[in-house]
Amino acid sequence: MSDEVGRLYDRYTDLGSVTLGENLHFGYWDSPDSTTPLDEATDRLTDLMTDRLRIGPGSRVLDLGCGTGAPGSRIAQRTGADVTGISVSHKQVELANKHAASLNLADQVRFERADAMDLPYADASFDAVIALESIIHMPDRAQVLSHVARVLRPGGRLVLTDFFERGPIPDSGRPAVERYLREFMMTMVQAEDYPPLLRGAGLWFEELTDISVPTLRRTFVELSARLTGSAPELSADYGSELVDQFNPGDLVDVQEFGHLLVVAVRPDA
User: Fold this and answer.
1) Residue 233 annotated to the active site
2) Structural domain span for residue 91
3) Long-range pairs, 246-249, Cβ under 8 A, ≥24
4) What keywords is this UniProt entry annotated with (predicted)?
C-alpha cells in the first residue's frame, strides 16, 4: 500500500501543485465571505496546526507526509524548530529538499523517504509530530499512531488532520465521495474512533475539532475552478479521463464529508 501511494504521488504531485499550490493541503478561511486566496488559506491551516504543537527554537519536529516541503519549511521559519519531513514519494522528497535549500534552510530542515507505518527513528527522538492530511492514505491508523507515540518524547505533541464522516453519506453524494477516496487511495473514519485509537497507542486525547466549515467547501470550489481552468494542460499530462471523472465541485455540497483536527499528547509518565 505505501509503495502504491508513493507511486501515486510521484505521478500526481504536479497536478496537486496546479490545483492546491505548493502546500498540497486544504485551506482555512475564518468566514464564508473571506477574500483570502487559496494559497494564503493553506498557509493559515499550517499555522493553525503549528501553534498547537507548542514548539520553539531547538525543538525537533517530524512532518508525516511532507508533500513538497512548504509546510515543513514554514514551520521551521516561524518557530526556529528543526524539522524532519518524510514521504513515500521519491519525487516529493526531492522537491522538498530543493525547496528547503532555496530558502537556505538545508541545515535546519531535511526530507527523507520513509514510511509512517514503520518509522525508522529512535524512541523519544521528537518533540512534536504533525500530519497534514496524510493519515488519510494510511490503511492502519492504529499502527501509525503507535509509531508516533514511540518516537515522541514524554510530553511531546501530535497534531493531525483527517477526513471523517460527519453523518451518513447520502445516496446523492456517495458516488462522488467514493470516487474521490478511490482515486487518491484514501479512507475515512468517524470522529468517535479517535479517542480509543489514541489511547490504544499510548497517547492522551486533547482536542477533536470539526474544521469542515472553514476548510472543505471553499477549497473544493477553488480546486474545481483551477482544475477546469487548466483542463487542456492537465488532460495532455494525465489523460482526459482524470479531469472528466474527478471534479472537486462534486463534493461542494456533500456536508457529511468532514475534516477533523486532532491534538494528542504523549503523557509524561
Assistant:
1) no
2) 2-265
3) 246/179, 246/180, 246/183, 248/19, 248/180, 248/219, 248/220, 248/221, 248/223, 248/224, 249/220, 249/221, 249/223, 249/224
4) Methyltransferase, Transferase
Question: Rounded mean pLDDT of 50-61?
Answer: 98
**Per the residue annotation, which of 22, 94, 133, 165 is the catalytic one?**
133
pLDDT at residue 185, as a whole number: 81
Band the pLDDT of 3: cuts 50, 70, 90: low
Task: Report the CATH number that the domain containing residue 102 is assigned in CATH.
Answer: 3.40.50.150
Q: Where are the beta strands (DSSP E) in 108-151?
A: 109-113, 126-131
- The CA–CA distances, whole Å, from 236 to 17, 223, 231, 257 equal 16, 18, 8, 31
How many structural domains does the chain have? Answer: 1
Question: What are the tens digits of pLDDT across the range 137-164?
Answer: 988 999 999 999 999 999 999 999 999 9
